[in-house]
């Protein structure tokens, strides 16, 4: 009885979907739908990657089935040399098919995802529900044990801009030890709790807030972040990414014992008391 109910529900879904596409489905045809319309192809830096696209069909066959596909060139912008497409195959006596997709870092791959859009042309024997989009991007996983623990920090220019005449300039204190932990929402990033611009009197009693550092494909990025301080009644310029970020090398000895981070202070210029300033901070591990 349960099998009958499931089959009826599946048939209803098929009929509704086909009605929306203004296609007529009957039991002599095969209905095909992708499990997920979008799949990720993460390619490791200077290496390769692989992923699998799965789909379901509405009937069984005693022999293996393969389906031809087309690339939608109007919607595809990924480097064609960066990916290799397999074949859409359904094994004999199965409702589930798949395609294996492999990728290689050609030097034109970045962390910004590009697209490959595939379509299986329908015909008199086949009804296809939707296309498949493959997102191609560079991936650089960072071990969860890297860049974590307690660190001291040292600013390259502790006096800040204006030759030290301005009483601000340090994004956070350099006379304390900070603990870096993995960002629970981003495995490639680390968080430490700080009080922004501690030289500002308006920040002296502020509660600590998170300061985020990301380790992305050999670059150390401090993304735009708010702070809790005020300057002349306005929110301060906050923190922003450096024009040229510093780098790291996971293959180097003791790569996370000491590393340098650059970022902008007063990044958006909201604080008119001092000019844009690029901070350079050396992190040294103590535990």
Features:
mainly beta, disordered N terminus, 2 domains, nine-stranded antiparallel sheet, Immunoglobulin-like, five-stranded mixed sheet
Structure write-up:
The protein has one helix and 22 strands. It is mainly beta and 287 residues long. The chain folds into two domains: 29-139, ntegrin, alpha v. Chain A, domain 3 (Immunoglobulin-like, Sandwich); 149-285, no CATH class. Strands 19-21-22-12-13-14-15-16-20 form a nine-stranded antiparallel β-sheet, with no helix packed on it. A five-stranded mixed β-sheet has the order 6-8-3-1-10, covered by helices on one side. β15 (209-216) and β16 (219-221) form a beta hairpin. The protein starts with a helix and ends with a strand.
State mean pLDDT (0 to 100 scale): 82
Major beta sheet summary: 9 strands, antiparallel
Beta content comes to: 35-45%
User: What count of helical segments does DSSP give?
Assistant: 1
Helical fraction equals under 10%
* N-to-C series of helices and strands: HEEEEEEEEEEEEEEEEEEEEEE
Task: Specify the structural class.
Answer: mainly beta
State the domain count. Answer: 2
Task: Please give the number of β-strands.
Answer: 22
Low-pLDDT segments, ≥5 res: 1-23, 163-168
**Strand order in the sheet with the most strands:** 19-21-22-12-13-14-15-16-20
Computed over alpha carbons, the radius of gyration is 27 Å
Overall body shape = elongated
Secondary structure elements and pairings:
Blueprint: H1 2-20, E1 30-34, E2 38-44, E3 48-57, E4 65-67, E5 70-71, E6 83-85, E7 88-90, E8 96-104, E9 114-119, E10 126-129, E11 132-139, E12 149-155, E13 177-183, E14 186-194, E15 209-216, E16 219-221, E17 230-231, E18 234-235, E19 239-241, E20 246-247, E21 258-265, E22 277-285
Parallel strand pairs: 1-10, 2-11
Antiparallel strand pairs: 1-3, 3-8, 4-7, 5-9, 6-8, 9-11, 12-13, 12-22, 13-14, 14-15, 15-16, 16-20, 17-18, 19-21, 21-22
């Amino acid at each position: 009885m349960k099998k009958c109910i499931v089959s009826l529900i599946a048939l209803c879904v098929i009929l509704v979907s086909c009605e929306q596409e203004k296609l007529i489905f009957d039991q002599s045809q095969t209905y095909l739908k992708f499990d997920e319309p979008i799949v990720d192809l993460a390619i490791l830096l200077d290496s390769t990657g692989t992923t699998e696209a799965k789909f379901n069909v509405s009937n069984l066959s005693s022999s293996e089935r393969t389906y031809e596909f087309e690339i939608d060139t109007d919607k595809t912008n990924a480097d064609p040399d960066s990916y290799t497409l397999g074949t859409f195959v359904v094994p004999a006596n199965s409702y589930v098919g798949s395609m294996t997709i492999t990728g290689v870092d050609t030097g034109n791959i970045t962390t910004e995802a590009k697209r490959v859009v595939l379509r299986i042309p329908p015909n008199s024997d086949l009804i296809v529900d939707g296309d498949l989009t493959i997102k191609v991007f560079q991936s650089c996983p960072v071990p969860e044990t890297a860049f974590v623990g307690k660190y001291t920090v040292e600013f390259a220019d502790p006096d800040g801009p204006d030759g030290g005449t301005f009483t601000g300039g340090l994004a956070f204190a350099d006379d304390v030890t900070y603990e870096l932990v993995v960002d629970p929402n981003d495995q490639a990033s680390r968080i430490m709790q700080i009080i922004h611009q501690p030289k500002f009197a308006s920040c002296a009693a502020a509660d600590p807030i998170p300061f985020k550092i990301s380790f992305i494909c050999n670059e150390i990025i401090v993304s735009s972040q708010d702070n809790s301080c005020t300057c002349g009644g306005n929110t301060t310029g906050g923190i922003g990414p450096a024009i040229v970020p510093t780098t790291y090398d996971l293959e180097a000895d003791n790569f996370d014992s000491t590393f340098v981070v650059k970022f902008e202070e007063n990044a958006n210029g909201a604080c008119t008391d001092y000019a844009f300033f690029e901070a350079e901070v050396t992190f040294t591990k103590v535990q």
